[in-house]
Design goal:
Elements: H1 8-23, E1 35-40, E2 47-55, E3 59-66, E4 77-84, E5 89-95, E6 99-100, H2 116-134, E7 135-140
Antiparallel strand pairs: 1-2, 1-7, 2-3, 3-4, 4-5, 5-6
Helix pairs in contact: 1-2
Length: 141
Amino acid sequence: MGRQKLDLTRLHDECEHNYRRLLKVPLNAMVLGASVQLSSRGTPNVGLHIEVTEVTKYTSTLTITADRAGPDWVPQIEIKARVYRDAKMLEVIEWCSDRTIPWTLVEQKPNQARDEKWQWNIFLSELLIYGLRHGSAITEV
């Protein structure tokens, strides 16, 4: 199997799609501490929680957690994502609080796939799509 080639265009496209998905969530990403819970209509204890944890002039950082829906041994999913308001992009920067995505795409840590950054952004898109399709928003401030 040959080495996978990084496709920066594909990664940027996904980040732009995730930004547009985030715009559909009733959350003001410019307000520090703003949060929203997208609870599953059929199962109120399952859903996504999105909180604004940092706001700067051009960016905001979000912490996105997915409630456990499976067995106890499945860890809770926690993703940190950065909203780039000027570039209109939403990018995963950290997940499960122990895996930080390298700043440059060529800086690879042990046990990391070459396209891991893209994979986590795809995973974020799946979470957002699920939350928007199956969730009812409960906005908090």
